[in-house]
Design goal:
Chain lengths: 357, 152
């Protein structure tokens, strides 16, 4: 009988960093000859991913097996994980502080608060705890979990090498300077700061646009606020593009002059790596796991107000020397990221828990 | 710029090098009338201070009431910073002024539609609030009756 390493997830979707990581891990485990299945709460599985996972109720692992849970929110998957007889591995992707969501989505705020409350107890009951950044690991250590390993979030460039989407390419024509944000439209991302910063930049360069790529269904009340803000500031060149198609995402990156994030809470921030891979200069607020994701590349800032952010954007867009330095640093960072030995890193951490065969 | 402001470029602290340049660019646009911060109770960010979804809904109503109108004032056709850009910008300005009568008529019609829609939403909301309050009162009354019956 072959060994078995399964994973349980709260959700499973295209373009989602946690889902992508679960698939990469599954590939590594299967390559080693182990059985590896992914179990997901069916209500949160996107239709395009259904053939790659099973419902939580189908999980039937036993004591000799290993079960991994990707933890970022309270969910039925967490309960399935806690109740399982298998040896347990927790991968901590960070829990957004609930305060960000109060008023925008009270249900989600409760689920986040609950997840954070249970974190120490669940972490202590696991055989191994992994954080996807040193920032996340320090949070766990602060909660009294001592043996925490760090396995930075996986990055695979394949999706970014997809052929360009002609519709998106056509829409982004016209010779305007394009600022890009890719990510969830959620309150912790502080997209309102980005819009205000762009407002000032647009006065320096009226031939520009801010393209915001991310599902508007993540937090509809927050999305309403962002739309209202663009109206208040009279910014018709802020384009909310919604969720990107597989061909759309690389097209957005290839048409961008700068990638920006003003997020106030990040466990790691994978889109920064995507932007660097597509050779787009990155500007990010220095917060959470972002310094680790950039690791000496791109541009970071803190304490700038909206007009100063507009000024910084203008500088990075127009100063060729700075732009060159930034791109060179990002190339260096990408070489390190692409040369990672993922299988080696995973086995170093999980080797001791290898399933019995 | 105060000392709490920082910029890092390619991993190195760069505030001393670029801080002045960033500040100079910011100062060129800082006083822009169109971006002047609105009073807090009129700002979209007012929504972010809501403590729960009920408060969000109340604040949203307040804001929408004040923002449900459109006007065509204060529009400045953009232009590139070159002699050709300035000429084309002026040309756009002339065309814009020529069309203004039509724009204002459209804005007037749109504002009528907006105020009708807002009226409908407010009336519906008020009816729902009333209905929920009545249902709550009925539920509490029945719960009270049930407890009384059980204690007899």
């Amino acid at each position: 009988m072959r060994g078995r390493v399964d994973q349980v997830l709260a959700g499973f979707a295209d373009g989602d960093a946690i889902s992508h990581e679960a698939l990469v891990l599954q590939g590594i485990f299967r390559k080693r000859g182990w059985v590896s299945r992914i179990f997901v709460d069916g209500r949160h599985c996107s239709p395009s991913m259904r053939d790659q996972c099973e419902g939580l109720e189908a999980y039937d692992g036993g004591e000799g097996d290993v079960l991994i849970h990707h933890y970022s929110i309270q969910s039925p998957a967490l309960d399935r994980f806690v109740g399982a007889a298998a040896r347990k591995v927790l991968i901590y992707h960070n829990i957004t502080p609930a305060e960000f969501f109060r008023g925008f989505d009270d249900g989600l705020a409760e689920a986040l608060a609950g997840a954070r409350r249970r974190l120490p107890e669940i972490g202590k009951a696991c055989d191994a705890v992994i954080a996807v950044s040193e920032f996340n690991a320090s949070e766990l250590r602060g909660l009294g979990l001592e043996k925490v390993s760090v396995l930075p979030l996986f990055f695979s460039p394949q999706a970014l090498d997809a052929p360009s989407d002609p519709e998106v390419a056509k829409r982004l024509g016209g010779g305007l300077t394009t600022l890009l944000y890719v990510g969830r439209l959620a309150p912790n991302k502080k997209v309102e700061d980005l819009i205000e910063g762009y407002g000032y930049y647009s006065r320096l360069n009226p031939y520009s646009r801010l393209v915001i790529v991310g599902s508007e269904r993540s937090c509809p009340r927050y999305f309403s606020m962002l739309k209202m803000l663009t109206g208040d500031l009279d910014l018709p060149n802020v384009c909310f593009e919604g969720f990107a198609s597989p061909g759309g995402l690389p097209t957005y990156y290839s048409r961008a002059d700068v990638f920006l994030t003003t997020s106030e809470h990040e466990g790691y921030c994978l889109p920064l790596l995507e932007a660097m891979y597509k050779k787009v200069p990155v500007i990010a607020r220095k917060v959470g796991g972002i310094p680790e994701a950039l690791d000496g590349a791109g541009v970071m800032y803190e304490g700038l107000d909206a007009p100063e952010l507009g000024g910084l954007i203008d500088l990075v867009v127009s100063d060729k020397t700075i732009r060159g330095r930034v791109l060179e640093s990002q190339d260096r960072r990408m070489r390190a990221v692409l040369n990672r030995d993922l299988e080696g890193e995973v086995m170093t951490i999980l080797g001791g828990l290898a399933p019995s065969c | 710029m105060s000392s709490s402001k920082q910029v890092w470029i390619a991993g190195g602290e760069a505030f001393a090098d670029v801080g002045g340049e960033v500040s100079a660019r910011a100062d060129r646009v800082r006083g822009d009338e169109r971006l002047k911060p609105l009073p807090p109770e009129l700002h979209a960010r007012y929504l972010a201070g809501s403590q729960d979804e009920g408060e969000y809904a109340r604040r949203l109503f307040e804001l929408v009431r004040r923002k449900a109108h459109v006007d065509t004032l204060g529009f400045e056709p953009p232009h590139r910073n070159s002699w050709l850009g300035r000429i084309l910008g002026r040309l756009r300005g002339v065309v814009w002024r020529g069309l203004r009568y039509q724009h204002e008529r459209m804005a007037f019609r749109q504002n009528l539609v907006n105020s009708h829609l807002l009226g409908v939403i407010e009336a519906n909301h008020a009816a729902l609030v009333k209905e929920v309050a009545e249902l709550r009162a009925k539920v509490s009354q029945r719960e009270g009756d049930a407890k009384e019956g059980a204690s007899r």
